[in-house]
Amino acid sequence: MVNHFRRDDALPALGLHGRKAPMKRLLLIIPLGLFVIVALFAVRGLSLDQQNLPSVLIDKPAPDLELADMPGLGNAFTTEELKGQVTLVNIFGSWCPSCRLEHSLLMQIGAEDEVPLYGINWIDTPERGADWLAQWGNPYDKVGNDAAGRNIIQFGVTAAPETFLIDQEGRIRYRHAGPLTPDFWEKTLRPMVLELQKRDRPES
Q1: Are strands 162-166 and 172-177 parallel, antiparallel or unpaired?
Q2: What gap in Å lies between CA 28 and CA 22, rounded to an integer?
């Protein structure tokens, strides 16, 4: 009788089948490990105070801006126009739900005319941004569009809305991430604005 020898019959003796099991376990462990790493970063991000994010640009000149005009809203502004006065620069977008939350306060700040308020419509079309301001009101002294987000990247913005306090020399003095609230405006940001304005006034 002829014994037909099959290659698979020799695998257990050679230990080749046994090598496949560790490889399969490794292929399962790698995705699990990557998931755990991503989850840890996500938890870390959620634990940060989103309203007091650090900025490498604090006390440094505001980046050069090249903003597009928006229909019916005049010419966009440049970084040079921010100099010589204390200003607020607010980042918003028609697609941004949180921007709607702070908008009534921005309208109040704009109406009080205590500090010039400039707006940048971020990752949006000029038309949509203009329509959004026409619907909810325009609190800004000047507004420009940054459709591709190239200008905003220089500010280190991570999400809208964000607000920057700029001093008379065009330097960024404070960064607030997230919607402004009346309490934060009255107790924190407005006093900072008034203090910077006072420094520029001659003593009587």
Answers
A1: antiparallel
A2: 10
Pairwise CA distance, residues 170 & 85, whole Å: 8
Cα 170 to chain centroid distance, Å, stands at 20
Divide the 204 residues of the chain into consecutive groups of 10 and give the mean pLDDT of each group: 49 48 59 43 37 68 95 96 97 96 98 97 96 98 95 88 96 96 97 92 52
CA distances from 118 to 130, 165, 169 (A): 14, 10, 16
Give the chain's end-to-end CA distance (angstroms, integer).
119
Query: What is the DSSP-derived secondary structure letter of residue 58?
Result: T
Alpha-helical segments (H) within 74-189: 97-112, 126-136, 150-155, 182-184
Which neighbouring-strand residues pair with 176?
Answer: 163
CA distances to 23, 42, 162 from 45, rounded to whole Å, are 34, 5, 17
Q: Which of 77, 49, 62, 182 is nearest to 140 (CA)?
A: 77
Backbone angles phi, psi at 202, to 5 degrees: -65, 140
The pTM for the full model equals: 0.73
**Cβ count within 10 A of residue 86:** 22
